[in-house]
Automatic annotation (TrEMBL), chains A, B:
PANTHER family per UniProt: PERSULFIDE DIOXYGENASE ETHE1, PERSULFIDE DIOXYGENASE ETHE1, MITOCHONDRIAL
Domain of life from the UniProt record: Eukaryota
Official protein name in the record: persulfide dioxygenase
SUPFAM superfamilies cross-referenced by the UniProt entry: Metallo-hydrolase/oxidoreductase
GO molecular function list: metal ion binding; sulfur dioxygenase activity
Record InterPro entries: Metallo-B-lactamas (IPR001279), Mito_Persulfide_Diox (IPR051682), POD-like_MBL-fold (IPR044528), RibonucZ/Hydroxyglut_hydro (IPR036866)
GO biological process: glutathione metabolic process; hydrogen sulfide metabolic process
Pfam families xref list: Lactamase_B (PF00753)
Lipid metabolism in keyword set: no
Subcellular location: Mitochondrion
Organism of provenance: Populus trichocarpa (Western balsam poplar)
Major subcellular location class: mitochondrion
EC number, UniProt record: 1.13.11.18
């Protein structure tokens, strides 16, 4: 491999350093690349509107995602899977970036941490909480497969991905020429990087999870970015193509997958008895706003 | 604020959901945005070549960065600030993505963890270790301000940013029309998100750090992305503009900054006596490859 490499490019150690020189080396590979760049330049630059931040909560290894349409005059923003412990951090960032937080969204009823949704609503009452209707939880807005959540001129599309829990959904950035490319899928615990959520609680089903991931996530373009609700090994992002090729569970056939999931021998989730009751009301024991079923419109 | 918002866009909760509909709502704001998108589309789409991954090591809260030119036939890649504990994870990812790792680079001699550079070299002997000449460490390649580190047709430019340690450098993606935009600055511990590294060990100097950040990092375009070596609160990225506005230390004048840094009362770094001697030889106590001074060429 090294030999082939050395033949194709003059990559001796020192030739890679053009010390104190502003002009890139021009060789055949470079010229080929210039042509490539020219071709690529004709594509639309589609991410100018989206401000995106990935945020990590260390105790539960949870990722919270901040998305905003910063090209819109109001800079409307949403948070996906906020955590109670990091609400102040998240709201400070929203304020510093000059965003208007309009939604606090959950991918599902988490069992390992308390959602930040309720706390956010107490601090910013205009924010609306969102969760799936299938989760049987309370929230300001209950969504279903096919719904679109608009923020400015960007939107998330809702895909039902049950299996980790009965009400799990995946939020995917829009499929339009004016939406970010590549698309981004916020998969919750349905699909993790080189893994997936457990299926032994909260209406979980290995059969359903397998079908969900294959029909709703692996059907997206291969370059689609996968942003999960957790990572325990320090990965921050993957792609549909990568998981289709390297996910150690979901590359197996369904029978093998079910066998893997049945034999995980995981301990009882230590936070489940606190987290689930709280998260069933989006972190608000006394939710003052009557739930609205958006999907009926 | 909410009133103004409601006046400008019909953002009642339900109107934001176009349930089961593929066609975005068309209103005046949307049409304005379409014009914006058209204008934005004329800009070059410059990130097609770069594969970028941010990786986290939880014990020391260290970020490792993987960059590769995936448009190049050899997919040459480099790792910035790898950690010994996560070398297997990083090398697996490199392999799965079909990359050819050519460099393992440090921003400085870390005091809180052992670099993964040495371990990487034992596993992939063709990889070259890189650190600054000013660090007085051993490595395959010793770099200085103004040097460029090429990988495929992309490159990193080296900026000297001493102050946390004597030999700290910041690596910045190239300033060319064929390089990623916005630029990305890998700042090590010189500039952290809403913070900076301590200045009381390893030749540290609050005066130098203040000058380094202001002259070498805050002089970059405001949209430049800041990727630090650590974050302890779950942030993953910032921008030059954000830090110029909100960094609680580096927005102060130099005297105030020095006063802050002199009164941090931080404990003695628990890993320093193990990490520094190891990192002075890039994780290899018996470095078989004679150091080469790239800057002399």
């Amino acid at each position: 491999m090294l030999r082939i490499y050395a033949l194709r490019l003059p990559l001796s150690n020192l030739s890679l350093f053009s010390s104190h020189s502003q002009k890139p080396r021009l060789n055949n590979n470079y010229r080929t690349m210039m042509n490539y760049t020219k071709a690529a330049s004709s594509q639309a630059f589609k991410n100018k509107k989206l401000l995106f931040r990935q945020l990590f909560e260390k105790d539960s290894s949870t990722y919270t995602y901040l998305l905003a349409d910063v090209a819109h005059p109001e800079k409307p923003a949403l948070l996906i899977d906020p955590v109670d412990k990091t609400v102040d951090r998240d709201l400070s960032l929203v304020k510093e970036l000059g965003l208007k937080l309009i939604y606090a969204i959950n991918t599902h009823v988490h069992a390992d941490h308390v959602t930040g949704t309720g706390l956010i609503k107490t601090k910013v009452p205009s924010v609306k909480s969102i969760i799936s209707k299938a989760s049987k939880s309370k929230a300001d807005l209950l969504i279903e497969a096919g719904d679109k959540i608009h923020f400015g001129d960007l939107f998330l599309e809702v895909r039902a991905t049950p299996g980790h829990t009965l009400g799990c959904v995946t939020y995917v950035t829009g499929d339009g020429s004016d939406q970010p490319q590549p698309r981004m899928a916020f998969t919750g615990d349905a699909l993790l990087i080189r893994g997936c959520g457990r299926t032994d609680f909260q209406g979980g089903s290995a059969h359903q999870l397998y079908q969900s991931v294959h029909s709703q996530i692996f059907s997206l373009p291969k370059e689609t970015l996968i942003y999960p609700a957790h990572d325990y090994r320090g990965f921050t992002v993957s792609t549909v193509g990568e998981e289709m090729q390297y996910n150690p569970r979901l590359t197996k056939d369904e029978e093998m997958f079910k066998s893997i999931m049945e034999n995980l021998n995981l301990p009882y989730p230590k936070m489940i008895d606190i987290a689930v009751p709280s998260n069933m009301v989006c972190g608000l024991q006394d939710l003052s706003v009557k739930p609205v079923d958006a999907s009926s419109n």
